């Protein structure tokens, strides 16, 4: 048996708990049975799903997140890091081990649901939604705690709510009505039942979340990895969303928003997501710099942060969009690819500038404040004041002139880059 | 050599914790890793354990490149961190079983491994207790049992005796010598130099991230002996006289007594006494000074 799973088994299961969970559920369902006039029908089915979501999503995600953070707080993480456990053993050992008791209760709820629901035909689909949604939420819980560990954070509070916020939409069809999303979805002209499409999407999301946990655990175990998985994930998202946006290729209604535009949006969003959640350490850049000087390219690829890969991918994508895409389409999108890329560079530089400060713990808060100011409050002030030209200075995409947008975005990126370089120099100069 | 470290550089933001560190550790030795706070001892231990990736340099452990193959290295290393933790909700036996399995010991072999480790650490009678119920000394023993259950070649112990009472420290020293006899190599960091002296065969002094000395304590004591001479009354111009003897160093004169370090064997010692008597000095006592690890450490650090 997987040692980590077995350890969790020791911790999570006791005779009292084994008896306690069904007893607790029995009391709840006795109440719903009474409400439904001594029948197991709709109220019992609904309540069983609500209890399932509470046990699996709210409690389960917290359990997986805590399974790692507790190790850090109790100073036992080094035992696991110096063990012979593989990242995969740790992944499923933590993921399933820490939530085994939750799954015990959750599966009892699903079992009651299957008996009680009047909608027999959707039971199978509900099970798929419920289980894959649960695994997704719990994987994200573990994933966010791994990111917290990289940032030297020992608590799970904000990340936990983030996971709940991200996972809850997947449970909405369960909570309200399994028929909620019935319809058709066109994906690269393949027509699918929307419920089936969502179930497949959920399973794919689960797969990638587990892969993410595996990769972060591998890094924690000091296993050197090349960024193929991250590139594959970007490729997957681009293909997935492009297919969804294009819909039916043969239809005259097919979106002009193609693979290039989708790549731009995916890479841009992932860059923001990663740079805001990763541990931005000036030593990472120092290592990259040193390995580049020594032409140790494999080491460079091992050390390169994922956000930087996404950002670098935007260069060919921006050029492709600028040179080969229909100008009319681009203008309708109101984005100019190269200025947008430059603004992203500016934002990354500013976020890193905050991260390289003496008190880096405030970096995330300051970064959010900066993004709020630069993209919303300042342009809004100028637009409301009738000075739309000034708004375009802060957000050059508001400009109706691509040259103006390019100059201002480039200038801001260069200025932010200059200040970042100065700060980075301060951090590492005396080390040489 | 079991461990060979070459030009190791490790940097944290704003400071270099290890600066071109190079040394080697012989198999079967017990090396005391000493140095002031912030010298880089813990960082060095973590690099050796394959828990941190340095900026530059190489670490070879029993033929394995630790930085390239940290997972292989983990099987050969037992590491006890300065702030070690135990799974307080498991019993000692469950803790040891988990670590044994995590270290790749087959389930069928675990009982034997647990028995051996618990016997070595004298915790066989505590297997059913939880670590929470144990004293600090016993917790330390459980943690060491976890670190050695897979019979590692190298055991890294970061401040293993901190917080222990004198009796427990003595028992720990006995244990380390026992592990050495069983073929393990130990690297032990501690601030309590008197405690390290009881079992260390080598001393590695680290200061400001640099190795300032890596010596064999026994060899050092054999070559550099410290002696004290007491005179009937203070001798004028004694410093000038002793300065003429090339094999004397670290001469410290205080009233009617002088202490110095003599480099050489018993023949040199005999020659010195002969020369001193030839000068008709009023010697009333000549005795060796037992140098301890602390003296050696302070002498090196002050240099």
Keywords:
heterodimer, A: 432 residues, mainly alpha, 3 domains, two-stranded antiparallel sheet, 2% strand, B: 303 residues, alpha/beta, Rossmann fold, Alpha-Beta Plaits, 2 domains, six-stranded mixed sheet, four-stranded antiparallel sheet, 11 helices, 35% helix
Question: Describe it for me?
Answer:
The complex is a heterodimer of chains A (432) and B (303). Chain A is mostly helical. Chain A has three domains: 1-177 and 197-212, no CATH class; 224-330, no CATH class; 334-432, no CATH class. Chain A is 76% helix and 2% strand. In chain A, strands 1-2 form a two-stranded antiparallel sheet. In chain A, helix 1 packs parallel to helix 5, helix 5 packs across helix 9 and helix 11 (259-277) runs antiparallel to helix 14. Chain A is globular. Chain A starts with a helix and ends with a helix. The model of chain A has no long low-confidence stretch (mean pLDDT 84). Chain B is of the alpha/beta class. Chain B folds into two domains: 3-208, P-loop containing nucleotide triphosphate hydrolases (Rossmann fold); 220-302, Alpha-Beta Plaits (2-Layer Sandwich), CATH 3.30.70. In chain B, 35% of the residues lie in helices and 30% in strands. Chain B has helices at 41-48, 70-76, 92-102, 110-120, 136-148, 166-181, 193-197, 217-223, 238-243, 266-278, 293-302; strands at residues 3-12, 15-25, 30-34, 56-61, 64-65, 77-80, 154-158, 185-189, 202-207, 210-216, 224-231, 248-254, 257-263, 283-289. In chain B, the strands form three sheets. Chain B has a six-stranded mixed β-sheet with strand order 6-7-8-3-9-10, sandwiched between helices. In chain B, helix 3 packs parallel to helix 5 (136-148). The mean pLDDT of chain B is 85. The interface between A and B is large, with 33 and 39 residues.
Number of spatially distinct domains of chain A: 3
Tell me which CATH architecture of the largest domain in chain B applies here. 3-Layer(aba) Sandwich
CATH class of the largest domain in chain B: Alpha Beta
Give the helix tally of chain B.
Answer: 11
The largest chain-to-chain contact, stated as pair and per-chain residue counts, equals: A-B, 33 and 39 residues
Indicate the mean pLDDT of chain B.
85
Largest sheet report of chain A: 2 strands, antiparallel
Decide which structural class fits the backbone of chain A: mainly alpha
